[in-house]
Amino acid sequence: MTVRTIAAHCLRPVQVVASAWNTFWYSPGDPTVLGFMRLFVGGMLFYTHLVWGLNLQAFLGSSGWNSPDVLVVVQEGQMAPSFWWYVTDQWLLPVHCACLGILFLFWIGFATRVTSVLSMVITISYSYRAHMSNFGLDQINAILCLYLCIGPSGAVLSVDRWLAVWKARRRAARRKLSFVIPPVKPSITANLAIRLVQIHFCVIYTYAGLSKLQGGAWWSGEAVWLAFANLEYQSLNMTWIAWYPWISDLMTHSTIMWEISFAALVWVRPVRPIVLAIGFGLHAGIGGMMGLWTFGLIMIFGHLSFWPAETVYWLVGRIPVLRSLLGNGPVATTALLSTSARLVTNGAVIAMDSTSKNELFATRELPALLWVDREVRRSLKSLQYFWERGFRCRVSSNMQEANTDREVTHPAAIVLIGTELPDDDVAVFHDDHYSRPDAQPLFMVLTEAQSQRLNGRIHTPGSHVLTGKVSLGRLRRKIEDKLFETEAPDNRLAREHEQLPASNSNVGVN
User: Fold this and answer.
1) Are strands 392-396 and 368-372 parallel, antiparallel or unpaired?
2) pLDDT at 486 > cutoff 50
3) 8 Å CB contact between 412 and 369
4) Residue 485's pLDDT band (boundaries 50, 70, 90)?
């Protein structure tokens, strides 16, 4: 065994961890979940700031509950950025109305890139100026608003999206072409924003659970009873629990266990719906029994970050008015054009330019694709390439993960980049795959030598082996020819060849 081989084996765990890290944070993501969250979080922001205006002088006035003289002492040594420090009492109402207008525009998703940042500035400014009137709701509002600024929260389910569709409709009418809904481009910032929300909520629940353990009432099981017995928060009379102390014990200890285990269990896909359902019941109970509806709802809205995009597509797709505001997912694409690239109007075939062809192809209803590859940079580039052309993609960085993803997602096609995999791993994956009665088409990219070594071991009617330097355009055409083999050749779209550097300069996807 050479030094190079030993070093490769030692570095393999580091490479696996680095690959998983990059895939988790920096893979392109569908912005639909982010836009769905904006509808709820934006509504909560507008409502809570509307409440500030019910008594502006008391909340923000120079002689109100949060007078500057009091806050100088309370906020001593702290940064308290707020534009309200520069607003005099006579300008409170006009500035407040302007802020509500910006928050409303963010809520409906108009000029979202600008209004999202302005909404974050507004949220922070109100919180620091009305420091003595802050609660957990205001903190979660600011957290979620910040992350909605990072990602393209206005890409779907927004006025911005409606305007993009409207412009595409007018452009098609001017060119006398059939209308095609413009696609929504996945982005790394969309995935990054969702991941930040998810991680932040895991931290919140972990610290909430650990801090509760410092109180004796949470160990004895009396904490929930003490909350119900507090008349200040008693919107629903729950004092009857005093005669059934086991209920209080069960609710107290279940809350602790759920909060502490949330950060671990919520990432396990089979149990994630159960974890989120318990969280929904917990926060709905806080709202209904203790009157903290706004806090309970904003926490539930944060849970939306754990929802899969398919669920949001299915839910929003039930509403015909909103269906056209979705992206190129399974619901939005059902009403699009057929796979033909030749459009017929008044009996005549209309020639399409390259831009129109690319737009049409990007909005086709293409199936799910599972990409199996150990090389992170190549995986991300390939994922973005196929996403931009309408595929619903998922990346697996190792064979174990690929087997799991194949069982869960049921892709219509699988691409296995075997240039960095042992021959036995490729052969085992191939044999296991085609031992299934419903095996999907499998496209394997191998080196010339690897293909020769595996000759006879990976030959089945459904397998497709590509060797040497393979362009993404060529690979995509192979997949389409297999999945849409009934399509007439003259109706296929023109494909451009796009090159992608491989981790090995001699082999792999180019």
Assistant:
1) parallel
2) no
3) yes
4) low
- Residue 460: its pLDDT value, please? 65
Helix, strand, coil abundance in the chain, percent, nearest 5: 65, 5, 30
pLDDT band at 111 (very low <50, low <70, confident <90, very high): very high
Question: What are the residue boundaries of the structural domains of the chain, listed by start?
Answer: 368-509
pLDDT at 265 over 80: yes
Pairing of strands 463-467, 442-446: parallel
Task: Classify 445 as helix, strand or coil.
Answer: strand
Say how far apart CA 197 and CA 17 lie, in whole Å: 22
How far apart, in whole angstroms, are the C-alpha atoms of residue 489 and residue 479? 14
Phi, psi of 426 (to 5 degrees): -65, -45
CB 84 within 8 A of CB 125: yes
Tens of pLDDT, residues 36-57: 999 999 999 999 999 988 888 8
pLDDT at 72: 79
Provide CB contacts within 8 A for 334, sequence distance 6+: 365
Supply the Cα-derived Rg of the chain in whole angstroms: 28
pLDDT confidence band for 346 (50 / 70 / 90) = very low
Q: How many helices (H) and strands (E) in the chain?
A: 22, 9
The DSSP-derived string for 159-215 is HHHHHHHHHHHHHHHHHT----PPPPPPBHHHHHHHHHHHHHHHHHHHHHHHHHTTS
Superfamily, domain 368-509: Response regulator (3.40.50.2300)
The number of angstroms, rounded, from the C-alpha of 386 to the middle of its chain's C-alpha atoms is 18
Give me the sheet containing 413-417, strands edge to edge: 392-396, 368-372, 413-417, 442-446, 463-467
Q: What are residue 464's DSSP bridge partners?
A: 443
* Amino acid code (one letter) for 176: K
Mean pLDDT of the chain: 79
71-79 contact pairs (CB < 8 A, 24+): 71/129, 71/131, 71/132, 74/131, 74/132, 75/128, 75/131
What are the start-end ranges of the E strands in 411-487?
A: 413-417, 442-446, 463-467, 469-470
Partners of 372 in beta bridges: 396, 416
Rounded CA-CA distance 300/288 in Å is: 14
Q: At residue 333, does pLDDT exceed 60?
A: no
